[in-house]
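Reminder to self: tokens first, then the designed residues, so the page reads top to bottom the way the pipeline ran.
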């Protein structure tokens, strides 16, 4: 498928910012559906050349320099054979140069496709091959790994070296080619029910409509917008382009592992005013790090069902801060509806609000007819946020993007989200869950059928079923395994999961498994999923004498791990993620430990020493000298206090 001198600025920048602000007073900058987003950045660079566009740590880039360097890079892409409609891959972390590359790719008429470097080889190889990336940008230290993955399918480019070779350019070059608002801007891969990820192709206008002339947010020229999302997660679209299409400053957190302490420190030090967080991260922030966020004027969260109690606690602490619950799948460019929680909100559940501008939401029945207000139906979305479709998947595009006739006689193209909802007379939406087997955990979309498909390719299994169960400690994915041959050594589940980790990202690996010789069947001979046993949290493999916690530090950590994961007798030699933990839960562990230590603990160390035994050695000063931190003071006295606190703060 071929698709269509730096600083915060002086008086000149201030004047330009006022000009930007006054373009459309009260509603932000004008939305122009046919203009590509890089034209809008160039226009802002003309209006406010010296204003800071991006900052990562001590590195800053003005709008003028961003425009010049990205234009030079776009022409270099053209010299290397990139033409309009091509796809350019990004095998990169959050960084200043990554954003330069994204803008340059758009200026070259191509679309960028972000690949998460932490994904397993087979997953990455499929995505790179599927989108037929013309070339792939990478960091120097990742080139060898990328070469082993991409093989002959892509031309690999050291981005940092290439940017260094052109960063002395002084004059912006003209357009490489003509691009319109309907042309492809990026390809974002999401979990696919067929067993393979699917690439969602988003146009320029979908991005521009998300952040310009909107009803759910009013960007101001002096806003500072936080960038915490990985570039392969579509929340980064709001962060990056929300800032750069409104003349704001984008502040990035460049470290690969995020912690609450790092997050709040960045907000305070940079006077961040606007941030979009995953729902889970917002909940953790409320539970552990509410202090020091006075600079925030608008906090948005989304990606999962929001907690009304957490919203109330945040607003009690910051009553003047706008707090918005956002809803929207990747196929509608990040967001379809939004609900700004009012002070004094007393409901048990948070609505997902009304349609954002330049989009429209519809509640349809099985025949794709609009249902009366108050009735339940499938939530569908129309408008300028809709994706062009799925890359190389015309069949799936035709299935999920359909034309319907509304009650008023209009014919519109809608995306069927698969979410169930009802709409009240004022147009506000209540989310009612899924109609299919898609779930969201930590803001990441997971098709359970994709996991099943991958498991069924294991020659040791006759069949596999994957379910998502939810209890007080959160959601967990459970895999039910039916062995081809009876297994007496008890290693089948661990061996199957080890193989699965080479095929799927970590967030898609089941946290628990059950080996069953027989699956319950319905009268029609199909697996009766409702009768599959639900394993208790305690059913996870427990520690033996050899693997149980040995000393005081290990016992304290085992108790904390168990509280967060909802299991007992934690194996001190098991990796946190192998026990069913997620990155967000590990951040929660880190936040609690930070509260109990006299010195800071590097969150990267917690990811590097991801089992209790290794991390206890690290804490006890028995790891490498470069990794040492202060010992726990009065551990025995603090243990009960810590566990009590975790119980009060459990999400």
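Designed residues (651 positions):
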């Amino acid at each position: 498928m071929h698709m269509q001198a730096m600083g915060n600025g002086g008086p000149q920048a201030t004047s330009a910012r006022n000009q930007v602000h006054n373009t459309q007073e009260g509603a932000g900058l004008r939305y122009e559906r046919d203009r590509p987003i890089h034209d809008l950045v160039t226009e802002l660079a003309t209006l406010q050349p010296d204003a800071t566009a991006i900052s990562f740590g001590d590195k800053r880039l003005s709008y003028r320099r961003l425009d010049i360097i990205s234009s030079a890079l776009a022409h270099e892409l053209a010299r290397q054979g990139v033409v309009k409609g091509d796809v350019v891959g990004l095998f990169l972390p959050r960084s200043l140069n990554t954003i330069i590359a994204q803008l340059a790719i758009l200026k070259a008429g191509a679309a960028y496709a972000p690949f998460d470097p932490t994904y397993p080889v087979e997953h990455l190889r499929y995505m790179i091959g599927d989108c037929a990336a013309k070339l792939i940008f990478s960091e120097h230290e990742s080139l060898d790994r990328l070469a082993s993955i991409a093989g002959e399918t892509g031309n690999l480019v050291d981005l940092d070296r290439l940017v260094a070779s052109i960063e002395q350019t002084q004059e912006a070059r003209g357009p490489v080619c003509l691009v319109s608002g309907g042309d492809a801007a990026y390809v974002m891969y999401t979990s696919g029910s067929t067993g393979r990820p699917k690439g969602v192709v988003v146009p320029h206008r979908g991005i521009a409509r998300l952040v310009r002339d909107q009803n759910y947010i009013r960007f101001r020229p002096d806003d500072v917008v936080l960038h915490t999302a990985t570039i392969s997660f579509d929340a980064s679209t709001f962060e990056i382009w929300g800032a750069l299409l409104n003349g704001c400053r984008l502040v990035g957190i460049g470290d690969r592992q995020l912690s609450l302490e790092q997050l709040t420190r960045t907000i305070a030090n940079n006077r961040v005013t606007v941030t979009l967080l995953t729902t889970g991260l917002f909940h953790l922030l409320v539970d552990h790090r509410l202090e020091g966020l006075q600079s925030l004027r608008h906090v948005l969260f989304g990606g999962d069902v929001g907690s009304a109690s957490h919203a109330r606690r945040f607003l009690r602490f910051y009553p003047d801060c706008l707090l918005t619950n956002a809803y929207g799948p990747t196929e509608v460019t990040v967001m379809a509806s939004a609900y700004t929680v009012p002070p004094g909100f007393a409901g048990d559940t948070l609505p997902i609000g009304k349609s954002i501008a330049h989009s429209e939401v519809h509640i349809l029945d099985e025949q794709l007819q609009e249902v009366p207000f108050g009735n339940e139906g499938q939530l569908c979305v129309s408008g300028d946020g809709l994706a062009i479709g799925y890359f190389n998947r015309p069949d799936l595009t035709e299935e999920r993007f359909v034309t319907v006739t509304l009650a008023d006689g209009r014919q519109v193209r809608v995306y069927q989200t698969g979410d169930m909802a009802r709409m009240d007379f004022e147009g506000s939406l209540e989310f009612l869950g899924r109609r299919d087997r898609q779930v969201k955990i930590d803001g990441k979309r997971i098709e359970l059928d994709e996991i099943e498909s991958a498991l069924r390719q294991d020659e040791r299994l006759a069949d596999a079923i994957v379910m998502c169960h939810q209890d007080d400690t959160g959601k967990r994915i459970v895999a039910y395994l039916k062995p081809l041959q009876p297994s007496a050594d008890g290693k089948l589940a661990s061996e199957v999961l080890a193989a699965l980790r080479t095929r799927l990202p970590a967030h898609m690996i089941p946290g628990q498994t059950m080996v069953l010789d027989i699956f319950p069947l319905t009268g029609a001979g199909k697996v009766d999923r409702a009768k599959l046993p639900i394993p208790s949290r305690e059913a996870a493999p427990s520690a033996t004498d050899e693997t149980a916690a040995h000393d005081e530090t290990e016992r304290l950590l085992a108790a904390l791990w168990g509280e967060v994961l909802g299991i007992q007798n934690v194996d001190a030699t098991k990796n946190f993620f192998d026990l069913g933990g997620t990155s967000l839960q590990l951040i929660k562990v880190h936040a609690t430990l930070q509260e109990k230590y006299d010195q800071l603990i590097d969150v990267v160390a917690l990811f590097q020493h991801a089992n209790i035994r290794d991390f206890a050695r690290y804490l006890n000063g028995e790891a490498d000298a470069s990794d040492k931190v202060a010992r726990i003071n009065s551990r025995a006295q603090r243990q009960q206090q810590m566990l009590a606190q975790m119980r009060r703060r459990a999400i």
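The mean pLDDT is 84.
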